[in-house]
Amino acid sequence: MNIHIKNGRLIDPRNNIDAQQDVFIVDKRIAAIGAAPQGFAAERVIDASGLIVMPGLVDVAARLREPGYEYRATLESEMDAAMAGGVTSLSCPPDTDPPLDEPGLVEMLKHRARLLNQARVFPVGALTYGLKGAELTEMVELSEAGCKAFSQADTPLTDTRVLMRAMQYAATFDYRVWLRPQDAFLAKDGVAHDGEVATRLGLPAIPVIAETIALSTMLKLARETGVKLHVCRISSAEGVEMVRAAKSKGLAVTCDVSMNHVHLSEMDIGFFDANCHLMPPLRSQRDKAALRAGLLDGTIDAICSNHSPVDEDAKQLPFAEAEAGATGMELLLPLVLKWAEQDSVPLLDALACVSSNPAQLLGVKTGHLSVGAHADVCVFDANATWKVEPSVLKSQGKNTPFNGYTMQGRVRHTIVEGHIAYSI
Amino acid sequence: MNNPQLNKNGELQHLLSTEGLPARILRDILDKASEFVNVAEGREIRKVPLLHGKSVFNVFFENSTRTRTTFEIAAKKLSADVVNLNIGSSSTSKGETLLDTVDNLCAMHADMFVVRHSSSGAAHLIAAHVAPEIHVINAGDGRHAHPTQALLDMFTIRHYKKEFHNLRVAIVGDVLHSRVARSQIHALTTLGVPEVRVVAPKTLLPTHVEKLGVRVFHDMAQGLKDVDVVMMLRLQNERMQGALLPSAQEYFKYYGLTQERLALAKPDAIVLHPGPMNRGVEIDSSVADGAQSVILPQVTFGIAVRMAVMSTLAGSKQ
User: Fold this and answer.
1) Rounded-to-integer distance, Cα A357 and Cα A55, Å
2) What confidence tens digit (pLDDT) does each residue in A67-95 have?
3) Contact assessment for residue A394 and residue A97, using Cβ atoms and an 8 Å cutoff
4) Do the beta carbons of residue A281 and residue A190 sit within 8 Å?
5) Which chain A residues in 242-271 lie under 8 Å from chain B, judged by CB atoms?
6) DSSP secondary-structure letter at A137?
7) What is the set of domains in chain A, with CATH numbers?
8) Is some CB atom of chain B closer than 8 A to the CB atom of A209?
9) Is the alpha carbon torsion for A251, A254, A260, A263 positive or negative?
């Protein structure tokens, strides 16, 4: 469709643009920025006066729960959530049931997603069969089926030799390996940060060293094997410092943080709020400050929603028994805006964390609005406020620590590949 | 954040934890309990009609004979109708969730729930779920809290020591896994005890235990020196697995309470234990049965304190 988005403030971090510029879409691509291309006839004009126009968001961690966990969420419900959140590209971790360890599963998921014609889905393949940490998956086959990276999701790989082999094999083909650092033994049975709150509430704890010991192993193995390592959901001040040091020594490592950890700490658990049962656990105020500092200096490349819809019954349990996770894609943009405002981060830099940066570490061509690029666009009102309530959320998962919060920033239009997939 | 234990008038709505309660409420409960003890000391604990017509449901998701029995006796002495349910951990595997169970019991017109559960926060979850006219008493949730145990310990201490503001108290043993210890610490600090110590090997202490306002000791002799009150904790057998401790023998050798170690405390120090005791593991029989032990009076006081808690809750306006 030929679309003219006029009078908006265009923010395109990849191209370093933050200016009032019109955007012209012809068919599926960005045709021009600023002035209309010759002979352009708009089929649809979007008046973006007072609105911000940016590349569709790229979310590096969004669980769609298919296959296997359709009672928690379905592709349909979560794609609606993605559109409402302005997320046009997302990568989903392999911890489905069965895990994404067979090319057929990946093809099926991509096929189902394509039929819905909403967000682009980039599955992350399982690094080992069944995520069991013993045998390598057929990474080449999985890559041909569409996997952009390989991961263990939230299941730590305990056998260091298998981890090294997996990295070596992935490095052979220049595949990215995404790992969340958590030592399986130190984190065993833990449900909350090993700090003041877990001490007070008597919750089994996960110490920071569970993250840093695993991270230390990963960084050393990455250097040894030359693999492109992506560190998922960093949560501690010490962890951020280790990634910073590794980057400064020239290691090819990238890093993301969940939006929950940018805004919340262990204190938010209050009186056992199971919505704050998240993985990794919410850590101390000091850790939260360090995560924000890591975003500012570029140690942390991307902010993700860590969207993990959980069914209501699984949260209506005592804290430790409640399932970890929260819905998030619809909150990603407002929470990034909130962080930008609180820490006085220029929007160009803040929005890079949910567009150009994650696209780059995922190795996909989206996340920017260069002429010729896929016409994946998010148009939002930075001033509109809305209240987070279960009835408002499109995601089947209704649990979030931000329930009841007033958010500032609301998506007005989401355009995927030149068609308007969402509009309010 | 609203305190889930208090109603809008600042009265006790639920008893979930000793943390976050004003000293006034703790003292009122202890005062009320002493009235019941006076009744009790006439050898015949008279039945009072304070909970007449009310139904108290003892809902135990984790088995306990002693605590459940004392709650049952307390409720009966207040003339309540008592229903005991030992649900155990099997019911959840049958598919019914905790809150489904609670809903069912509410439909049977429960006025008060006494709840024990193996998971920290279970009592809070139930309290947040039930109708406002229903009261919840936490009879132990995971590692979190056991407030009536702590209150009966406070009652015992006040009975023998009269005051709190001049005491040095040592809590000895497995603090990490102990809901009793957490509740004792909060109660002691709220009531104005200037020095609360914890004594244990590092494997049995939470990483940030000092944040609870206690002094940490790893050596029994130093930890017990000149204390007025020794509060022993139960060491569960399963702690011998999982690399927390090498053996019961070694634990007793370094952390068991013997007459010799007790001699380091003040001469008039008292010894408490929440029971059931492991003689020869955390406490020597000569101490448990000795002159400084107040372990059996604790049990008797426990009934009065639980009566006081129940009648306080029943008296609070919605």
Assistant:
1) 12
2) 889 888 889 999 999 999 999 999 999 99
3) no
4) yes
5) 270-271
6) -
7) 54-362 (3.20.20.140)
8) no
9) positive
